[in-house]
Amino acid sequence: MKKRFRFLAILSILALFALAACGSDSGGSADGDSGGDSGKKESDIKFLSILTGGTQGTYYPLGGSFAEFITDETGIKTTAESSQASAANMTALADGTAEIAFVQTDIAYYANKGELMFEKDGAIDSVSAIGSLYPETIQLVTTEKSGIKTFDDLKGKKVSVGAPGSGTYANAEQLLEIHGLSIKDDIKAQNLDFGESQESLQSGQIDAAFITSGTPTGAVEALNAVAKVNIVPVEDDKADELIEKYPYYAKDTIEAGTYGLEEDVPTVSVGAMLVIQNDIPDDVVYDITKAIYENADKITHAKGALISAEKGLDGIGIPVHAGAQRYFDEVNGK
Fold this sequence. Notes:
It is a single chain. It is built from ten helices and ten strands. The protein is an alpha/beta fold. Strands 1, 2, 3, 4, 5, 6, 7, 8, 9 and 10 form a ten-stranded mixed β-sheet that branches. Helix 5 links the parallel strand 5 and strand 6 (188-190). Helix 2 (59-74) crosses helix 9, helix 6 packs parallel to helix 7 and helix 9 (282-293) packs across helix 10. The chain is globular, with a radius of gyration of 26 Å. The N and C termini lie far apart (74 Å).
């Protein structure tokens, strides 16, 4: 009887060990299905947030369209949120505040290298590219009433240059530099967002404003509804000088008819792009990228016509997320 009891006890212990081993194997298999190195699984992603810019810019309406595409195509509830734009967006993604963001290509480059506005806190290496979108035109906006027609006319004037550390601020600083001017010494710099710049130009509280955004920009259209808008040109020789020193710029043109302009205005541009946290699984990023680029023809904003998979990797100076790279490789036949 004692032998039988001892035998049953041993069987029970062996059965417990077997159950524990099965549970351990099951957990290991689930981890093996995760994307990237983060341990996140595709099924873990229930919500996504896209940081855009101010509500009067171009990022915000496009972000709303992208959020809708991602939600419909992937089933992941995605929302677009207004923000302080490029530099702040890179920092927010690094801090885990959001997952996806709009950013200028030059600002993404500075963040990746830890330069300019990112020098103090160091390089951001936890964010990668989804893809490029369209040119971001640097617009020096004023009104006919101001009498400002050239960069030289800005001396002593109140000029909105965007928030310190923003993409607009960096563009303003570099363009002024090429024209022999300084933000600190030659103008009365005002740190306003696009909507505030429009209101201040309209009321006469400022004389001009730098706005880096895809055209047509909502804030400038709103200004044009109540005042005659002038865009100060960046002449060819100055554009060449700028590009030689800062090669991420390109020549651009604001076409006649935009904001009621009577003729084309030469200027320069950087690029707009989307970035994402590195630890979002590859399959999720592939689906996000596909949802955006294959629905670009549904975008009602004028910049939608410029968004295409064929140009999705143009001008990107930071690493591309593996999921996005796989999509572009497939559609572009690589």
